[in-house]
């Protein structure tokens, strides 16, 4: 039987250059989507899939993220004094009881593969998930990670989320070549990081969700710097294909690239439209605005 996925790694040491100047001081994962920061959306997805331990790989400058996931005693006292019970419960449940948050610092920006490797002492010898919070994925019933855990349980193997993208965009992603197993499920045959459109094996791009067996860590330890002089997770996945299966999850749902201003704005508008508290009013407002 497949081991349970209890841990999720969030590599969040990136500089956020695509969202400057908003992220000159503020960590990009703290930009808000409607009423909560992007990182909280990512954490909620992890929790939806049964994750109990959150491992943040941060840069020194991201104390604000630790603060967000720690009790704010002063705020809680004030809310209690003012009888704001609902708000008090909302802030107290970040994170919910029984969920642990652990932190490791990535001292140098040596790439996504290096960031995941930094989490090795905290992950130990267990299967684990990796979530890139920039890739925000919405689904109204089953989150992307829930869909992936289902495949992981069935196949007892690595799982990577993929999505079809326009050919001219493949050079932004890890891109995969596929093969089917006996049951017809799609597996990875090869993977290449940020290929030129005329060299891409397909238009199936990796998005920021992974489930790995512990084998990936040993491979990351020996992965040399690759594209952009960084230690690429994609290169370690390519090496993993020599010994293990990597299944593909063509997830259902809508992905937003919150690492770019356009994607972030699109996500904010669509999440606001879906929001229980403000959705209806926001929709009338937008309709009026567009009419003018
Ligand atoms: C990283 C990975 C890439 C993947 C992408 C998903 O790239 O290296 O393989 O397709 O995330 O968002 P980055 O966005 O860090 O350049």
Secondary structure layout:
Elements: E1 7-12, E2 32-33, E3 36-37, H1 38-48, E4 53-58, H2 63-68, H3 73-81, H4 85-92, E5 100-105, H5 112-118, H6 120-123, E6 128-131, E7 135-138, H7 144-155, E8 158-164, E9 174-180, E10 186-193, E11 204-212, H8 215-221, H9 233-240, E12 246-249, E13 254-257, H10 261-274, H11 279-291
Parallel strand pairs: 1-4, 1-6, 4-5, 8-12
Antiparallel strand pairs: 2-3, 6-11, 7-13, 8-11, 9-10
The structure holds 1-O-phosphono-alpha-D-glucopyranose.
Residues 112, 132, 135, 173-174, 193, 205-208, 232-234 line the site of 1-O-phosphono-alpha-D-glucopyranose.
Main attributes of the structure:
binds 1-O-phosphono-alpha-D-glucopyranose; alpha/beta; 7-stranded mixed beta sheet; two-stranded antiparallel sheet; 34% helix; 292 residues
Task: Please explain how this structure is put together.
It is globular, with a radius of gyration of 20 Å. A 7-stranded mixed sheet has the order 5-4-1-6-11-8-12, with helices on both faces. α3 runs antiparallel to α4 (85-92) and α10 (261-274) crosses α11 (279-291). With 292 residues, the protein is an alpha/beta fold. 34% of the residues lie in helices and 24% in strands. The chain binds 1-O-phosphono-alpha-D-glucopyranose. 1-O-phosphono-alpha-D-glucopyranose is lined by residues 112, 132, 135, 173-174, 193, 205-208, 232-234.
């Amino acid at each position: 039987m497949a081991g349970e996925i209890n841990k999720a790694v969030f590599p969040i040491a990136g500089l956020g250059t695509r969202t400057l100047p908003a992220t000159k001081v503020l960590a990009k994962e703290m930009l808000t989507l409607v009423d909560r920061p992007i990182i909280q959306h990512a954490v909620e997805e992890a929790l939806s899939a049964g994750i109990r331990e959150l491992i943040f790989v941060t840069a020194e400058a991201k104390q604000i993220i630790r603060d967000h996931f720690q009790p704010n005693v002063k705020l809680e006292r004030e809310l209690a004094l003012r009888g704001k019970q609902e708000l008090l419960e909302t802030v107290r449940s970040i994170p919910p009881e029984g969920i642990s948050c652990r932190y490791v610092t990535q001292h140098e920006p040596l790439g996504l593969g290096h960031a995941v490797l930094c989490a090795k002492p905290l992950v130990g010898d267990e299967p684990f998930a990796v979530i890139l919070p920039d890739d925000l994925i919405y689904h109204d019933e089953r989150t992307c990670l829930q869909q992936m855990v289902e495949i992981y349980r069935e196949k007892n193997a690595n799982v990577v989320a993929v999505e079809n993208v326009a050919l001219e965009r493949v050079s932004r992603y890890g891109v995969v070549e596929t093969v089917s197993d006996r049951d017809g499920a799609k597996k990875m045959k090869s993977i290449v990081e940020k290929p030129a459109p005329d060299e891409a094996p397909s238009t199936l791009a990796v998005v920021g969700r992974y489930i790995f067996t512990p084998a990936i860590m040993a491979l990351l330890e020996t992965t040399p710097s690759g594209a952009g002089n960084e230690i690429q997770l994609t290169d370690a996945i390519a090496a993993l294909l020599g010994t293990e299966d990597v299944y593909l999850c063509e997830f259902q749902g809508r992905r937003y690239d919150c690492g770019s201003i356009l994607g972030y704005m699109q996500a904010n508008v669509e999440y606001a439209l879906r929001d229980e508290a403000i959705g209806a009013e926001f929709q009338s407002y937008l309709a009026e605005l567009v009419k003018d």
